[in-house]
Amino acid sequence: MNEMGIAFQEITETIRMVQAENLDIRTITLGINLNDCRRDDPSKTAEAIYNKILKLGKNLVKVAEDLESEYGIPIVNKRVSVTPISIIGDGFDSEGFKLIAKAMDKASEEIGVNFIGGYSALVHKGFTKGDLNLIKSIPEVLSETVRVCSSVNVATSKSGINMDAVLIMGNIIKETADLTADKDGIGCTKLVVFANAPEDNPFMAGSFHGVGEPESTVNIGISGPGVVHRVVEKLGSDADFGELSEAIKKTAFKITRAGELIGRLAAQRLESHFGIIDLSLAPTPAIGDSIANILEAMGLERCGAPGTTAALALLNDAVKKGGVMATSYVGGLSGAFIPVSEDAGMIDAVSAGALTIEKLEAMTCVCSVGLDMIAIPGDTSPYTIAGIIADEMAIGVINKKTTAVRIIPVPGKKVGEWVEFGGLLGRAPIMEVNRFSPEIFVKRGGRIPAPIHSLNN
């Protein structure tokens, strides 16, 4: 602790944030390299993966719980991410990939984590046979496992957008919803489509252990919307934008210091590498832990009103500026999340008619990720879903940032009805989607070329 220069005052202030303002470490995620687990057949590969996750992850939950007790900072989620499974299983058929997924699920249950990420494929320039077989297996895997999370990267600013992959994912999302219809399409809450996916993201459902990562890493996702909300409220309406930004920066600094302390200690005790701190403000359905409420405290009548995107841009920028002063190792997504079902203020804004998918899309130009945890009518076509994905990928590619889509076409539900996922996944009203079809456009096939500014070498 002395090596980090953390003062007693910082510790006491952190304790106050925990007790009064919902501060927590949102996730501690152990990344595990699986490259040495490849065997001649799927069952042996699955066994090797199971054994390695148990070997490296067996103490993760205990270490996290010990740190919670010692420092009084709640660590909400303990998770594991692994090397993208399409790489490890390349050459296997879909049945082989399913064996691996079941081994991942069993191992994650055994070590006590709530999610395991990395059932993933990176297809921004095209597919291998393994990529296609993994993607084809996603609906069944997410319907038959509890903890496995899946992600597919379909675009980068260097390569453009793989529209074949975008169209396939529109269909995969529909199939996943249908196979989990008895639970309102909950399988889709564990599936995300990315542009510019980071290799060190600790948050689910998009976490995977990148190919450039070491044998194992500890990555930390901080939180603290409640803390920032309290600070903005105290400033009142007389503070100008410079004062607002400065107050948020100072708060983000304090939150990040807590995450840095926990991350380094966890890595040491797990005999792993300390990876990164993800500076993202991640909301929960709990009252007072909302990104939307922060924006409203800045002076918006409702999140979604004109000015919302500007307010979110200010928040995102201030969080990053404060965080980078507190740690040298910033990574992951780092910003502010706007998941509808996981944010009580967002839910209220949608219910009031203030917030639409189109406004959320505009907000994703400046936020941490993209269209997240949005429930839409179950009869939405896969072409419309593909069009929504394509739009979001374009925002990421052109702006050289990570964007993503986690969208749930809830079987049997119509606009205005509600879906209840429970826990941190929350609840959401079914949102209206544009009724005009992009079918001809998304079926053209091929790759939308990378933008001119990708030629920056």
TrEMBL record:
Coiled coil: none annotated. It comes from the Bacteria. InterPro entries: UPF0210. Belongs to the UPF0210 family. HAMAP family: UPF0210. Homodimer. NCBIfam families: PRK05313.1. This is UPF0210 protein SAMN02746089_02551. It comes from Caldanaerobius fijiensis DSM 17918.
